[in-house]
């Protein structure tokens, strides 16, 4: 006679509660999280049900569902009980990854991070490829700031254009900046989202030591994901430099009238708020200010904007996982963008640019260009 | 008419040969005797100074016990009594009454808590418990020797009540009090009384027409000879104290005289059109207007903010020309009335949550998303659409209507955390109203829980379901407009675990109640407390639901918390009754624990005035003659002024400095280096310690508790004195910062103890030896845990450390 455990996942719940997910107990199943979660738009999946099962020690977070979450924070913002769903999911992922049971592709990512200090498997010595032909200097004590390029901008051919645009804009505005080049290692965000806390700390400490050694006290990040961990997680590990996202720096340069732009053709631009810039860190106005300062640009807002933005589907480690074409949030987002009449869909995050461009190429009805804010500005620079 | 407390002469302690103390050690069956050796404690008591009788007894609180006490008092000519038994919070009144019956003043009785604070919490440490009981008795005898007879003063009380707020609660309270014979000024901010109930269409669960049942009460209040209705008025200031309040009421003029017949010719002529607040902005009114047809007083008023005439410039006189009785008077001025009353009832009502704060619902962005209050006006026959339910966008009747519950309620992040009480039934009622007139309209209610808790509520809910109203569990995430003008709701049907996607012609948001926007002003003017949810706080949630901590001021209606009409009326009747009890005899007595200023020591510095939570101290006189004066009727006896005064000029009756020092002396007479001198406030921390006892939570026997009314009574001098006596540590405890029984006196405690901690640091005294901790009456476990932590400190403090404390403060009784 086989005896089944009544509550087979009790330990998982205890572990979740113990390591920061105690707010799971507050959930009273109102259903707002499911209603808000973008996955509900493409699949028959209920976040509420998963949390309920987890509460009762019956599972919910031990299977595939756990790896769907993009950590977009829409549910956390709306939950009336203050359940920190991201913390709960993170705690569950730490537990599952700790047992070596994360999805295959993410195992590979962990391996790459350990091996070559970036999730893409790129060569450590190739981190400056993006800067070929540009006057980009290594960081020296005394420079205005360090530009933290990040792995996607360093290695992905598409996103390298974003880094190049930023470099051009800063150069044209007279900002002296440097980069760490091959001394830069991954900010650690992918490790954190996959649930490998030790790996994250190792990467973070490495960067912190580099910052300390090279005398870095101000950092400007290309990716909102880097910005987020540099700002919120690094200080927990030791003295960390001040950090901004590059759109915040550009917004200040716009205020001081330091970016030399010429009038160009008119374009209708709509801006997609990246989750890690917007909902996670409240940066909504600066990217818009920068876009509106570009001569000829008209800014239109999509229906779901700012705190109500729809996630592109790239955060929480999902950029490394395959999503079937009919389940991509970015495809829905592209349709929303087209409804505004815009011909440019703009964002400020490498993952958003990759996902939205992919969907625009495969799913847009008309010609819709996908650009990063820096690319729009760089395109208008007086040369 | 203020009552002056004559400056009393300082009375020294009674001469020793006059004091005859009787000590009675209660066994309480085995509750005390099972752990504490009561006969030994009684024998010990007999050796203490001033004790002429020391006896142990099985049950002191029983009738035989009390008879024995009375006999003993008479037989042995006792003039002080110490009962060592349970907590004074239980039986102090019992023994005080027994003493009084034997001819002894009730303030000459002291108790030693050897049960909740001793036998029950040291069950397995009998020797230590007995030693502690002896200490507690020694402390009690020391204090008792210094107790003085007290006479409770009486203060005359005016036979009139100010009611603030003319909603149904205010009207009910006013009627009850006026019918009992009191004069009642009723102050209302709007041009008419009636409040929210006048705006509602029907009431649940009876489906009565709201204004139909309210209007007779409004009329009765309007014509009652003892109710003075002051509309267009607000309370600007309140001076005085219970029984003798002087209130400044600021009246905005109507610019229309009493000759107005409410014919409405003026409004028809007025060219200015503006949204009508009564109809939630869904209909228009003129600059000269009456808020609704059944207004009381039945008159028109001119809204000078809208009227074309500004200041003294009269550019438009159409209303004047149209008015037959010629009752428009531009000459009226704002005025400030002084109203003198004995009690005040606060019935200022509540505001509503603004759902525009939740962008996903599209309120104000989408015209067909409305609130339940707007719905009340639409469906009301006297409302903007004459009772027709139509969409605001195209004035068509909706075929499908959705209600969304809990909008802004039960929401920690973006709304109010509490449940708003009325919204479930409001929606059930609204759904039935729609079905009554338009049975073919499909109605869906999106909810988390349906709270149909009251009388007749479950019936109404069942009726709604019988009528085919659908209840779907799962709050929608978003309201989005469809191309055809309908609205789409998306969410999860949690009971089916399925996503829903439904279209409606109209979405009604069931919004919650919240405190009025000007609650902070009202709070300040009336010295009220507010609970965590922002509504006005009652003195005790179970036992004093309509009293406020400020004597003489009562609460009624939604000003205190969200509730329906029945509960508002009930509370109004309760508040009227409480006010009546206070005023019925024409005078009230004041417990003799108030503050007393000794003029010859008072330097007129005014620090006491600053810390008094009740504004009960006034400075009078000038120059060298400037002295503090306590308004005894307003004084609650917290002792914060006494602790603040640096010149020993304030005596706290029945809780004097000398009595506290005597208790510290007694507690530290032997083995001071093992003891934690503990100060606990009567309302929370002492009660928390009692609770630990009742729950039999065990903790080490190191503490000796000295009770004060408030932690604000604890002067840094007491703490320094305890150190100078060699105490291992001092624990100062009180209510949590927002919960102080005396409004905010414990914030002074915090300030003083923080300063004292700095001083200890400078004197290189181990900072762990002074601890400040807040407990509620329910935090028995926290209390026990704190004592366990303090024991670690006691064990680790060295003799050198103790000596350092003694040296630092020896001889500094004045603490300066």
Strand content of chain A: 5-15%
Instruction: Determine the structural class of chain B based on helices, strands and strand pairing.
Output: alpha/beta
What strand line-up does the widest sheet of chain B have?
10-7-6-18-29
Describe the sheet with the most strands of chain A: 5 strands, parallel
The biggest chain-chain interface is:
A-B, 22 and 25 residues
Radius of gyration of chain B: 32 Å
Helix content of chain B: 25-40%
State the end-to-end distance of chain B: 39 Å
Description:
The complex is a heterodimer of chains A (383) and B (816). Chain A has 17 helices and nine strands. In chain A, helix 12 links the parallel strand 4 (218-221) and strand 5. By secondary structure, chain A is of the alpha/beta class. Helix content of chain A is 44%, strand content 9%. Chain A is globular. A five-stranded parallel sheet of chain A has the order 1-3-2-4-5. In chain A, strands 7-6-8-9 form a four-stranded parallel sheet, sandwiched between helices. In chain B, a hairpin with a 4-residue loop joins strand 8 (202-203) and strand 9 (208-209). Mean pLDDT of chain B is 93; it is low at 1-10. Chain B is of the alpha/beta class and 816 residues long. In chain B, strands 10-7-6-18-29 form a five-stranded parallel sheet. Chain B has a five-stranded parallel sheet with strand order 20-27-21-22-23. Chain B has a four-stranded parallel sheet with strand order 2-1-3-4, with helices on both faces. Chain B is elongated and about 90 Å long. The chains are: A alpha/beta (383), B alpha/beta (816). At the A-B interface, helix 2 of A face strand 25 of B.
């Amino acid at each position: 006679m086989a005896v089944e455990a009544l509550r087979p996942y009790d330990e998982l719940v205890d572990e979740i509660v113990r390591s920061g997910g105690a707010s799971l107990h507050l959930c009273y199943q109102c259903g707002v999280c499911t209603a808000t979660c973008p996955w509900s738009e493409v699949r028959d999946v209920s976040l509420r049900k998963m949390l309920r099962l987890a509460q009762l020690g019956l599972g919910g977070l031990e299977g595939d569902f756990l790896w769907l979450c993009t950590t977009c924070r829409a549910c956390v913002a709306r939950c009336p009980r203050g359940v920190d769903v991201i913390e709960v999911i993170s705690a569950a992922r730490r537990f599952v990854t700790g047992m070596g049971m994360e999805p295959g592709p993410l195992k590979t990512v962990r391996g790459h991070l350990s091996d070559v200090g970036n999730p893409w498997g790129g060569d450590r010595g190739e981190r400056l490829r993006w800067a070929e032909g540009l006057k980009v200097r290594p960081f020296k004590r005394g420079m205005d700031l360090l530009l933290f390029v990040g792995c996607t901008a360093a290695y992905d051919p598409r996103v390298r254009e974003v880094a190049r645009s930023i470099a051009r804009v800063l150069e044209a505005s007279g900002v002296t900046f440097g980069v760490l080049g091959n001394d830069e290692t991954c900010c650690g965000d992918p490790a954190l989202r996959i649930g490998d806390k030790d790996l994250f700390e190792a990467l973070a400490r490495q960067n912190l030591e580099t910052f300390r050694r090279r005398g870095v006290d101000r950092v400007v990040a290309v990716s909102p994901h880097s910005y987020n961990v540099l700002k919120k997680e690094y200080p927990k590990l030791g003295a960390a430099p001040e950090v901004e996202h590059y759109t915040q720096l550009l917004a200040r340069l716009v205020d001081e009238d330091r970016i030399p732009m010429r009038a160009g053709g008119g374009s209708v631009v709509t801006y997609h708020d990246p989750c890690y810039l917007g909902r996670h860190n409240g940066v909504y106005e600066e990217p818009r200010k920068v876009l509106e300062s570009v001569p000829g640009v008209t800014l239109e807002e999509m229906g779901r904007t700012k705190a109500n933005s729809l996630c592109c589907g790239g955060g929480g480690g999902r950029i490394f996982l395959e999503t079937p074409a009919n389940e991509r949030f970015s495809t829905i987002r592209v349709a929303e963008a087209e409804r505004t009449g815009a011909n440019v869909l703009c964002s400020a995050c490498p993952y958003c640019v990759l996902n939205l461009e992919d969907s625009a190429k495969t799913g847009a009805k008309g010609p819709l260009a996908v650009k990063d804010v820096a690319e729009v500005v760089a395109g208008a620079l007086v040369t | 008419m203020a009552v002056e407390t004559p400056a009393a002469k300082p009375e020294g302690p009674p001469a020793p040969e006059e004091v005859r103390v009787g000590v009675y050690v209660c066994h309480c069956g085995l509750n005390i005797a099972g752990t504490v050796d009561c006969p030994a404690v009684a024998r010990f008591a007999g050796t203490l100074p001033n004790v002429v009788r020391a006896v142990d007894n099985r049950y002191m609180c029983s009738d035989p016990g009390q008879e024995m006490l009375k006999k003993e008092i008479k037989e042995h000519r006792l003039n002080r009594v110490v009962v060592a038994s349970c907590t004074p919070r239980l039986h102090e009144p019992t023994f005080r009454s027994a003493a009084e019956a034997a001819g002894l003043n009730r303030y000459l009785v002291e108790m030693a808590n050897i049960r909740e604070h001793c036998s029950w919490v040291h069950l397995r440490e009998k020797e230590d418990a007995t030693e502690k009981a002896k200490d507690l008795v020694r402390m009690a005898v020391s204090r008792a020797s210094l107790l003085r007879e007290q006479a409770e003063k009486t203060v005359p009380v005016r036979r009139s009540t100010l009611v603030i707020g003319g909603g149904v609660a205010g009207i009910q309270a006013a009627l009850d009090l006026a019918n009992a014979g009191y004069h009642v000024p009723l102050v209302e901010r709007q041009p008419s009384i009636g409040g929210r109930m006048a705006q509602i269409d029907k009431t649940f669960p009876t489906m009565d027409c709201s204004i139909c049942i309210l209007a007779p009460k409004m009329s009765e209040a309007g014509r009652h000879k003892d109710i003075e209705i002051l509309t267009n008025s607000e309370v600007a200031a309140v001076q005085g104290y219970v029984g003798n309040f002087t209130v400044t009421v600021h009246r905005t003029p109507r610019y229309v005289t009493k000759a107005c017949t409410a014919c409405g010719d003026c409004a028809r002529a007025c060219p200015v059109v503006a949204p009508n607040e009564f109809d939630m902005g869904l209909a228009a009114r003129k600059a000269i207007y009456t808020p609704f047809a059944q207004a009381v007083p039945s008159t028109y008023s001119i809204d000078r903010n809208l009227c074309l005439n500004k200041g003294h410039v009269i550019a438009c006189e159409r209303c004047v020309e149209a008015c037959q009785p010629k009752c428009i008077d531009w000459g009226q001025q704002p005025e400030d009335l002084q109203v003198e009353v004995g009690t005040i009832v606060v019935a200022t009502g509540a505001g509503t949550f603004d759902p525009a704060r939740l962008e996903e619902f599209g309120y104000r962005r989408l015209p067909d998303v409305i609130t339940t209050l707007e719905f009340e006006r639409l469906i009301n026959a006297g409302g903007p659409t004459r009772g027709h339910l139509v969409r605001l966008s195209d004035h068509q009747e909706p075929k499908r209507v959705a209600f969304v519950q809990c909008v802004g309620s039960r929401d920690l992040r973006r709304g109010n955390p509490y449940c708003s009480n009325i919204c479930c039934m409001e929606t059930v009622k609204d759904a039935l109203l729609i079905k009554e007139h338009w049975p073919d309209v499909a109605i869906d209610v999106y909810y988390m829980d349906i709270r149909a808790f009251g009388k007749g509520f479950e019936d109404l809910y069942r009726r709604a379901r019988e009528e085919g109203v659908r209840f779907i569990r799962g709050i929608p995430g978003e309201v989005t407009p469809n191309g055809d003008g309908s609205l789409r709701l998306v969410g999860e049907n949690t009971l089916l675990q399925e996503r829903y996607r439904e279209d409606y012609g109209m979405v009604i948001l069931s919004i919650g109640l919240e405190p009025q926007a000007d609650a902070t002003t009202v709070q300040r003017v009336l010295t009220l407390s507010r609970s965590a949810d922002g509504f006005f706080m009652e003195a005790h949630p179970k036992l004093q639901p309509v009293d406020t901590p400020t004597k003489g001021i009562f609460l009624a209606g939604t000003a205190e918390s969200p509730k329906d009409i029945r509960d508002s009326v009930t509370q109004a009747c309760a508040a009227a009754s409480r006010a009546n009890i206070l005023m019925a005899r024409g005078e009230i007595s004041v417990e003799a624990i108030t503050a007393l200023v000794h003029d010859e020591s008072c330097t007129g510095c005014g620090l006491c005035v600053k810390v008094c939570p009740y504004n009960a101290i006034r400075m009078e006189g000038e120059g060298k003659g400037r002295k503090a004066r306590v308004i005894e009727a307003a004084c609650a006896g917290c002792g914060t002024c006494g602790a603040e005064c640096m010149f020993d000029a304030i005596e706290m009756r029945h809780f004097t400095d000398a009595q506290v020092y005597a208790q510290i002396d007694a507690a530290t007479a032997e083995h001071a280096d093992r003891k934690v001198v503990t100060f606990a406030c009567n309302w929370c921390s002492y009660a928390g310690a009692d609770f630990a006892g009742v729950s039999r939570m065990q903790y080490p026997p190191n503490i000796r508790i000295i009770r004060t009314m408030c932690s604000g009574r604890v002067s840094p001098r007491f703490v320094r004195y305890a150190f100078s006596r060699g105490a291992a540590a001092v624990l100062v405890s009180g209510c949590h910062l927002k919960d102080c029984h005396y409004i905010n006196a414990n914030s002074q405690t915090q300030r003083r103890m923080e300063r004292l901690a700095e001083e200890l640091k400078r004197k290189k005294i181990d900072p762990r030896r002074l601890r400040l901790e807040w407990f509620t009456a329910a935090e028995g476990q926290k209390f026990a845990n704190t004592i366990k932590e303090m024991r670690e400190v006691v064990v680790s403090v060295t003799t050198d450390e103790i000596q350092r404390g003694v040296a630092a403060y020896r001889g500094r009784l004045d603490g300066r």
